[in-house]
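FAQ

Q: What does a record look like?
A: Structure on top, sequence underneath. For example:
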C-alpha cells in the first residue's frame, strides 16, 4: 500500500476554523481519511545552541488513491 502524507503546523491547525475544537478538527480530517500518526514538538533549546524547529507540527497519512 502507498501512503500520502500531510504536515501541518499546530498553530495553523488550531486556527483553521476558530469555532471548532481540536477534536472536531481531527474528526474533520478523519472524514477525509487522514490519520494523525505523529506530533512533533521541539525540544527546549540548549544554552548557546540554535533551535532548528521552533514550532510544533502534526503529521497525517492516508492511503494514496
Amino acid at each position: 500500500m502507498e501512503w500520502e502524507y500531510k504536515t501541518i503546523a499546530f498553530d495553523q491547525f488550531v486556527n483553521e476554523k476558530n469555532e471548532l475544537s481540536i477534536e472536531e478538527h481531527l474528526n474533520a480530517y478523519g472524514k477525509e481519511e487522514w490519520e494523525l500518526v505523529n506530533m512533533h514538538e521541539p525540544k527546549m533549546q540548549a544554552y548557546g545552541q540554535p533551535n532548528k524547529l521552533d514550532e510544533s507540527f502534526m503529521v497525517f497519512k492516508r492511503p494514496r488513491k
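Q: Is there anything notable about this one?
A: Residues 9 and 64 are 22 Å apart (CA to CA).
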